[in-house]
Amino acid sequence: DIYNNVDELPRNLTFDFIVIGGGTAGNVVANRLTENPSFSVLVLEAGPSPEGQLNHTVPFFSIFLREQSPLDWNYTTVPQVGLDGSALQYPRGRILGGCSSMNRLAYVRGSSEDYDRYANVTGDNGWSWNEIQPYIRKNERWTSPTDNHNTSGQFNPAVHGFHGINSVSLAGFPSPTVQDRVIQVTEELSDEFPFNLDYNSGFQLGVGWAQSTIKHGKRSSSFTSYLGPEFVGRQNLHILLNAQVTRLLQTNSDPTEFLTVEFAENKDAPRQRVTATKEVIISTGSVGTPTLLLNSGIGDPNQLSRFGIKTLINIPDVGKNLSNQPMLTLSYFVNSTNTFDDIIRNLTLRSELIRQWIETDGDGPLGIGPYGTHQVFTRLSKNSTALETNPDPAAGPNTAHIQSGIQNGDISPPPEGHFMTISLSLNTPTSRGSIQLNTTDAFDQPLIDLGLLTTDFDVLALKEGIGIAQRFVGARAWDGYVLGPLSNITASSTDAELEAFIRANTSPNGHIVSTASMSPKGAQHGVVDPDLRVKGIARLRVVDASILPFVPSANTQFAVYMVGERGADLIKAAW
Ligand SMILES: Cc1cc2nc3c(=O)[nH]c(=O)nc-3n(C[C@H](O)[C@H](O)[C@H](O)COP(=O)(O)OP(=O)(O)OC[C@H]3O[C@@H](n4cnc5c(N)ncnc54)[C@H](O)[C@@H]3O)c2cc1C
Questions:
Q1: Can you give the pTM of this predicted structure?
Q2: Which residues form the Glucose-methanol-choline oxidoreductase N-terminal domain (predicted)?
């Protein structure tokens, strides 16, 4: 059952497992644990349900989910020294499904080397690409695109799952002018931009057709899939909404047991308590997880003592090593009106398309994600200054440094003109940031320092990324279509101009990881062991994006679903 407030939660229930955070990973864990009818599970989620929220259902409207909203945590970062001191808005879903209910839907796994590196740095081969294959299949349900077009030559069925839970599909509303020209680029500039039938095969380099977590023109999230109608009625699954966990409490006198969870509906509401009999699983995401651990006295004594919090478990790395990918969007004027710019600018057109989307149950241009039709994965060139002067941070020689989404429009278009946009992400950043407490009130925001562009490598790599984008749009394939850049970046820009442009225009991806990182069992660094148990605490695990020691060369939802699936298996095996 789903309960909206604590008064609805039956008092006579006991719970084997408490999952804190009904987000991307949390709902996977809740679903998989309740497959066993003898396990009872309580999920505590700070936010409400996305049921009936159009912006959270219509894929194209994900572009509007960066705005402040009661369904968002509405974070603001600390001033970013690498971005000329700007403090940035940093959206995260405060809603059932978490960020999977509000992200941009791109389904990108990364390279096999990303996962083999997780195995190497944790000493647990279970995180390697080969070993996670069953979890890919359990998660993924490959789905036809909305328009049912012939998809042969657009993906490789051999590397996909067809019987999992979360839908993945190709874009169902084609934009042929752009698509055809992208394919021409792969032929014309095949050395740098070769066609890749499926960038989710483990070998990601090249240009491939975009895959998204969309089911028949609607968002597929951990809420719509793992808590779908066939699961949510399970007698042993209980989900309490509007319940923000404020801290974990030691159970009885055993200092290594934190089975009691304190929560409240809002800052002023009375604190409630509930105790698990087997385990507590923290799935509150890369910002929420370190915040909750620190508020519970689990962290760096130096930091905790500043707030008068007694250190119960000394784990210095809680909230440290934060990694996030910086992103730049480059827009180009195009000689066409067949772009999505007008959907954003013209309310009459938008209303007409909403009507079409409702009447056809998901058809039309609103049923695709804004990332459009193709993704491009590129390594920095062999004579790259960034690589000559720094160690290569990629997980291996087949892992992309730069990911470029080719969009048939600008998501914040100026009042006039039509555009093609390249959203350029540095997938292998070396800058690291942190999450720290700001006050002792769990309802106050923590200090979020994304550390963006604080290393030379990251700035040099983005400069070279701009070069990659310029070469892509410079192909003859775009003759007569791309008219020129919207920004003042041109082939003749100086290094100093490029750097100033980058620092003024970079924004963070939502792909924050590593704030409760995995490390080998017994290691002094890191926060959780490879079986996701918090170091030194027997019955407390973290299962979410925060445990990934490096960001994969990808958007992160796939990796998080995989962590949820494997995490649930590890818990089931233990009990
Ligand atoms: C704007 C945006 C766009 C993105 N686009 C993409 C994309 O296109 N493709 C992609 O692959 N990835 C994308 N991502 C990243 C991806 O969605 C996330 O990496 C992933 O969903 C994180 O999953 P999680 O389980 O770690 O955390 P979340 O999904 O954030 O789940 C955490 C849950 O815990 C709840 N919670 C937090 N604190 C508490 C507390 N104290 N008590 C109770 N509940 C709490 C939250 O409300 C939330 O529901 C995007 C992210 C954002 C923000």
A1: 0.97
A2: 285-299
